[in-house]
TrEMBL record, chain A:
It comes from Plantactinospora alkalitolerans. This is ABC transporter permease. The chain crosses the membrane at residues 58-77, 98-120, 126-146, 153-177, 197-219. Keywords: Membrane, Transmembrane, Transmembrane helix.
Length: 231, 263
């Protein structure tokens, strides 16, 4: 990255807000506390490992998705942005990029810590980004898309939260059906790394990129964002 | 008292017009009603008493409807600050505690309306489907006994917590909490699931249907909060949920009062 663009990224990082930057580490911190509680309650090695994996595959992507839709919706001077020659998609992209970077950095550090301490229960460490990156891309893409289509943070976060909760509660049903299995978000922690795992990850990445593409298309008409309802 | 009612009425009328409130909560209720498996309340055996059928519906809606409820209320006080209306409201001849209590009551009443509507629709469907006119009456009773105390509990935290940790962070933690504190088996890890403080209404449902609905009374962490489901434990659960839900409001009201005195 050219050094003259660094201040711009620093500025966008501040515009993204402290809550967005704090959401990924907070999600992993909560996971860590839960794992400590579980371990102190006498749980086995496998159970604690599964819980740590769930934090990476389920809780972190949810946190990033929720923070992303807030970044899109909370711009208080959007009218000013739209009057500038810079494309708004680029501006939002930088803010969401900061969030993705924070999320990825937290995930890598968390994975390294878990692996080094011997609690890692996921795939080969080199394939570990496939645990968190596909669900993060998918959930974030969907949340932002819903936020833009409905122009409501409440609607987007409610629907995505219910979907997340539904996949956790009815994991068996999602895995049992041929057409839902490739899009099941928590295959690593709920099913394991076996046959179909890579297909599932690739399907999530593909559909996640599709959500992102639609978001970029919608951002070609950014004035549609001007009537959002709440933070 | 009249001031409290006035603030509550104002908050209610403002909130009830919010498009996203109705869209989010009715969408969630419709999706879970249509996708319930064969263990859902729609498939309760023919001839089952109305209280059992409608308790099942309240539990089903209780899985997701409070999620929308929490999301809606998460930005109420934050939004007042962001839009600059807090200063305007503080200029009114009403104390901060009354203002907060009115917002709580108005927000609770308006945000609970879609939940009540969902229960009435389910009650209407069951009345026609089973030919039992008691279904509608039990829809209202089940809403009041099972869903409302949990919503009152959520409302207190959803209004106040975002002032401290911000709305987006609250929303993430709230979803995680809802799964952990209501639906996670207590034997899996230390959790509030199956305790008197479980806002999904595990105790009232278990009492009404005569068997454990989820995990009410199942041995686990904080065993003193896990008595066997009975009329008394239901009453204790309802009172506890309402009182604990008021705690954040008491703390926030005290802080706001001090801030106003020192301003």
């Amino acid at each position: 990255m050219p050094t003259h663009r660094l201040p711009l990224w620093r500025y966008e990082s501040r515009r993204a807000g402290w809550a967005a930057r704090a959401a990924p580490p907070a999600a992993l911190l909560v996971t860590l506390v839960m794992a400590l509680l579980t371990a102190s309650g006498g749980a086995g090695h496998d159970q604690v490992g599964q819980l740590l994996l769930t934090g990476l595959e389920a809780i972190l992507p949810l946190a990033v998705g929720m923070a992303a839709v807030t970044i899109v919706a909370r711009d208080g001077c959007r009218e000013l942005q739209l009057s500038l020659p810079a494309r708004y998609a680029g501006t939002l992209g930088r803010r969401l990029g900061v969030l993705a970077l924070v999320g990825a950095a937290c995930a890598v550090a968390f994975t390294a810590g878990v692996w080094l301490s011997g609690w890692w229960a996921g795939p080969n460490i080199l394939a570990s980004p496939l645990v968190w990156a596909p669900p993060m891309l998918w959930l974030t893409g969907l949340t932002v898309l819903l936020g833009m289509l409905g122009r409501s943070v409440v609607l987007a976060t409610s629907v995505v939260s219910a979907l997340w909760l539904g996949e956790q509660l009815f994991a068996g049903s999602f895995v049992a059906l041929d057409w839902t299995r490739p899009f099941f978000l928590f295959t690593t922690s709920r099913v394991g790394v076996g046959e179909g795992w890579l297909t599932n990850r690739l399907a999530l990445v593909g559909s996640g990129l599709l959500f992102v593409a639609v978001v970029v298309l919608l951002l070609r008409r950014p004035h549609l964002l001007l009537t959002e309802e709440e933070e | 008292m009249s001031e409290l009612l006035a603030v509550g009425r104002y908050e209610f009328r403002m909130q009830v017009r919010k498009r996203s409130l109705w869209l989010a909560m009715l969408l969630l209720a419709a999706v879970i009603a249509l996708t319930q498996g064969d263990r859902g309340p729609r498939y309760t055996e023919a001839g089952a008493p109305a209280r059992e059928v409608m308790a099942g519906w309240a539990l089903l809606f209780g899985i997701v409807v409070p999620i929308g409820f929490g999301m809606v209320l998460a930005d109420r006080l934050v939004r007042d600050r962001r839009l600059g209306t807090t200063a305007l409201l503080e200029s009114l001849p009403v104390g901060p505690r009354v203002l907060l209590a009115g917002k709580y009551l108005g927000g609770l009443a308006s945000s609970a309306l879609p939940g009540l509507l969902a229960m009435l629709v389910a009650g209407g469907y069951e009345t026609v489907h089973r030919g039992d006119p008691l279904m509608l009456a039990w829809a209202v009773l089940a809403f009041g006994l099972i869903m409302l105390p949990g919503l009152a509990f959520v409302a207190g935290f959803a209004l106040v917590s975002p002032l401290v940790i911000s709305a987006p962070l609250f929303r993430v933690l709230f979803v995680g909490y809802w799964f952990w504190g209501n639906m996670l088996p207590p034997e899996f890890l230390p959790s509030l699931s199956g305790t008197l403080l479980s806002p999904i209404g595990d105790y009232p449902v278990s009492w009404l249907i005569g068997e454990t609905a989820l995990y009410a009374g199942v041995p686990g962490w904080l065993s003193f909060l896990r008595p066997a489901p009975s009329g008394v434990s239901v009453l204790v659960s309802v009172v506890l949920l309402v009182l604990v839900g008021l705690l954040p409001l008491v703390v926030a009201g005290t802080v706001f009062s001090r801030q106003r005195r020192t301003a």
